[in-house]
Amino acid sequence: MLEGGKKDLDYVGPEELRRVNKIRRDFVANVSHELKTPATSLRLLAESVVETIEEDPDQARYFAEQLKNETERLGQLISDLLDLARLESEEKVPTPNPVDVRHVLMVVLGRMRRVARSKDISLQWKRFGRSAQYEIPGDETQLTSMFTNLIDNAIKYTPPGGRVEVTGGSDDLGVSVRISDTGIGIPEGKLSRIFERFYRVDKARSKETGGTGLGLSIVRHVAENHGGRVAVESAPGEGTTFTVYLPRG
Ligand code: ADP
Known about the structure:
By secondary structure, this protein is an alpha+beta fold. Adenosine-5'-diphosphate binds next to helix 5 and helix 7.
């Protein structure tokens, strides 16, 4: 990976170097832009609290609540950026340990169940055969973050009353996990871009649901750092399926 480190840059020509420098510049510009919006909101909300606290404490409390939500979002953005920076600086998991993918999914599904229920979405777990082997060499924290992002997106982009299904399979070569939803889907022309940092199909909707636009970049890096890959199929208005494939070694 060219952005990975100096070592790669020693071997590239001026054209490639220019391209890499442009990617870096664009990234800094994007990050600054993404941080500017919440920073402005925080200032405006803090001013509103100061202005209303004496005369209208209820209103001030409302602004303070908003201030808290906005701060949490900013925290999430910074934490996603740090995760991504770490993942991008590695080409593979530094110290892989045996990880049971089924166990990781159980934990993530357990955590997401409440969110799904609050949106009236049925979150189903399917066909992870008991006898099959779901152990792969990997990093449990990274895998947890990858599946959390995928399942969280599936719930976020599925209207109430819908369904999210997680299915697993395993063979001699590796483990595959499919996360399908009955949500809004992604237009065909946008599919190739969704793994880019900060790319959102619908900027307004993603902001509304608290998205940072970094989730799928993290997903792709985790899969690749495990020697695997992630694929997506979607039909607008019908749903989306992400499939992660993780090799056994
Ligand atoms: P975000 O934080 O905006 O969710 P992601 O990187 O996780 O960012 O996803 C990028 C974009 O891909 C989202 O903004 C959304 O438009 C689209 N997307 C991701 N997952 C789904 C899904 N399951 N259904 C529909 N659209 C999705």
